[in-house]
């Protein structure tokens, strides 16, 4: 199944907290539950969060008892705020919610049910487009992967981080399917271990040769010439090309630069936030100290220790070799070239809606 999907007025999602040991599907019929599922990371990964939030807003439309469009809009605004607050860094969440609200404002109808149906259809479109966009990115990105490449990857950017297929891991999958004989170094990705739990699981299912490493091994691997390129995803890319991604990404980019290893970011245009000028304006989520003090249920630090747990960091644009989008590979100057692909995406969406 897809990571997140709509099924007869219910949102279904793979419960990623349980993987790789248990595969369970959670079902939600209220938007408040979807917001909680995003917060608690049943579903995670920027594009998957965006799609889940979109379905969450569609649920809110079905839940609302409104009999007029203005009353429905008020209920949707309240649901928007709850969903928006679920996780702050991944901009795909705001992007999906805004896209749905724009649709509502653009509809010239007084038929409340027509608005409800339009919202459900648009949320479904966001999910379907995500899969298609990922495959386009994979084609573009695979061109950057030489034969026999040894690739270093951080966090999880696979089918599980999107509706299906994946971003950086989608590029890896495509390069593997093209017979490029690649090998992937999989960062375990402390503290939540998305690499060890999810990326390793996905790559093993796809039959991609891989080796799991401790995050701290990445510097040694690069300095000893065992990495040809780094591929990561993004939670938000500022207008100047600064990239917010899973904590530890900046360290990888700095070491990659020091060793002349190309550092590529793979992300759809929905992850590019032109409203945010640079990385220092991107909100960084801070998560529960328990993610650091515990591995699973086991306490590994002294009881009562003070903890700081930022979930993301900012990689400055100067360390990013290129950004792969569904419109191709974007290189510096990022300010200008990112704007061009975002405008192209908006233009294409308008054309599709005409
Ligand atoms: O905290 P997570 O697991 O949601 O963080 C995910 C990442 O940092 C991914 O690299 C990013 O969302 C891109 S996924 C296609």
Explain briefly what this protein structure is.
The chain is an alpha/beta fold. The protein has helices at residues 31-39, 46-63, 69-84, 92-106, 112-142, 168-177, 194-206, 218-223, 249-258, 290-293, 334-353, and strands spanning 4-7, 10-14, 25-28, 150-153, 183-187, 210-213, 229-232, 236-238, 243-246, 263-266, 272-273, 294-295, 298-299, 312-315, 322-325, 328-330. It contains 11 helices and 16 strands.
Structure, described:
The chain is built from eleven helices and 16 strands. The protein is of the alpha/beta class. The chain has two domains: about 5-135, Four Helix Bundle (Hemerythrin (Met), subunit A), CATH 1.20.120; about 135-354, Rossmann fold (3-Layer(aba) Sandwich). The strands form four sheets. It has a seven-stranded mixed sheet with strand order 6-5-4-7-10-15-16, with helices on both faces. Strands 11-8-9-14 form a four-stranded mixed sheet, covered by helices on one side. It has a three-stranded antiparallel sheet with strand order 1-2-3, with helices on one face. α4 (about 90-105) crosses α5 and α5 crosses α6. The radius of gyration is 20 Å and the shape is globular. It starts with a strand and ends with a helix. Bound molecules: 5-S-methyl-1-O-phosphono-5-thio-D-ribulose. 5-S-methyl-1-O-phosphono-5-thio-D-ribulose binds near residues 44, 167 and 194.
């Amino acid at each position: 199944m897809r990571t997140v999907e709509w099924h007869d007025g219910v949102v279904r999602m793979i419960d990623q907290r349980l993987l790789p040991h248990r595969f369970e599907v959670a079902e939600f019929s209220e938007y408040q539950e979807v917001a909680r599922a995003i917060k608690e990371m049943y579903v995670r990964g920027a594009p998957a969060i965006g799609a889940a939030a979109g379905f969450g807003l569609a649920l809110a439309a079905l839940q609302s008892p409104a009999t007029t469009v203005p009353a429905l809009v008020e209920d949707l605004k309240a649901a928007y705020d709850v969903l928006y607050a679920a996780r702050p860094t991944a901009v795909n969440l705001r992007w999906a919610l805004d896209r749905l609200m724009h649709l509502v404002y653009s509809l010239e109808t007084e038929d409340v049910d027509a608005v409800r149906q339009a919202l459900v259809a648009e949320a479904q479109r966001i999910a379907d487009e995500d899969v298609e966009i990922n495959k386009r990115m994979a084609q573009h990105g695979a061109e950057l992967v030489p034969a026999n490449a040894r690739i270093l990857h951080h966090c999880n950017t696979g089918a599980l981080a999107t509706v299906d297929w994946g971003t950086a891991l989608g590029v890896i999958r495509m390069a593997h399917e093209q017979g490029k004989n690649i090998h992937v170094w999989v960062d375990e990705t402390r503290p939540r271990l998305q690499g060890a739990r999810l990326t390793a699981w996905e790559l093993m299912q796809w039959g991609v040769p891989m080796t799991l490493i401790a995050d701290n091994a990445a510097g040694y691997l690069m300095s000893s010439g065992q990495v040809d390129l780094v591929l990561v995803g993004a939670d938000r890319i500022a207008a100047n090309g600064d990239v917010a991604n899973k904590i530890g990404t900046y360290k990888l980019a700095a070491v990659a630069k020091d060793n002349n290893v190309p550092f590529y970011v793979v992300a759809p245009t929905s992850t590019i936030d032109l409203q945010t000028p640079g990385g220092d304006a991107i909100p960084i989520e801070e998560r529960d100290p328990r993610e650091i003090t515990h591995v699973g249920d086991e306490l590994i630090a002294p009881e009562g220790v003070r903890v700081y747990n930022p979930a993301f960091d900012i990689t400055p644009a100067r360390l990013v070799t290129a950004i792969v989008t569904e419109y191709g590979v974007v290189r510096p100057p990022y300010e200008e070239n990112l704007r061009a692909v975002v405008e192209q995406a908006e233009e294409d969406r308008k054309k599709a809606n005409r």
